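Exercise 7.
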Amino acid sequence: MTRLALALVGAVLLLPVLVISAATGGIQVSVPSKQARTGIPPGYLALYEQAGLASGLPWQLLAGIGKVECDHGQSPDPSCSHQGVENQAGAGGPMQFLASTWALYGLDANGDGSADRWDPVDAVFSAANYLRAAGAPADIPAALYAYNHSQAYVDQVLAWADRYQQQGAQLGLLEMGTGASAAGSSVAQTAVAFALAQLGTPYRWGGEGGGGFDCSGLVQAAYQTAGVALPRVAQAQYDAGPLLPAGAALEPGDLVFFGSSPSAVSHVGIVVGGGEMVDAPHTGAVVRIESYAWPDYLGASRPATSGAAG
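Solution. The predicted structure, written as tokens, is:
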């Protein structure tokens, strides 16, 4: 991904956050699979997550299109990344829009004053815009067929979407083409949705957003979005509880704590399922998903049941 594209990704990081609170009830959130995290550049993965949150579509659907069309901007085809270059069919950009389709559905998603189909941010959000206009999420296969009139294409995109979905670590993930979703805690779901939308954001000590997060700043901001007020630092968040019994099964949205003792908590993350958490780990890193099987694990709390209001 070019420096320009990365800068554009950064410019749109906060856009979907504005609609998460109101829209999460209809948004389906799941943890990226290992294949997604290793095969999709972090900037593109963050874009798919954010565009999915903003549009109410499964982010895996957008990632499947991005994979099939231009391998998430990594394809050597110049029409995928070179401004103004089109393929033989007249399509261009990382989501391979025709000029005629772009004229109807292209968005200036990064707010730079121009809707550009070669811009990754504009392209991914515009793909979501087009899919919704074509009937998604109510009928995802039909929307994909409208995107590219080929049943083989539809099957290929859905196959990639399935690979990017981590089974057993999901929170009401939309079943492709059915519109069915699992029930879950709306508070926990909103907090996890916010945290996932920050993937790729730089770690910044003392950060509470606006350019970076530290571990407890990410947790506080995620639950504030869900209407739950938490203290600012990891130790106070641990003390606030409610703590879960040792050995209790953890659920998405639970907080996991680390340190040398219960009175010396040094780190916190948000459980996303499958033995993994989303966290802002340390200076030089970014918000990411990783295992919480750390040797200094202290315990977990479930603030979604605390009833605290922000």
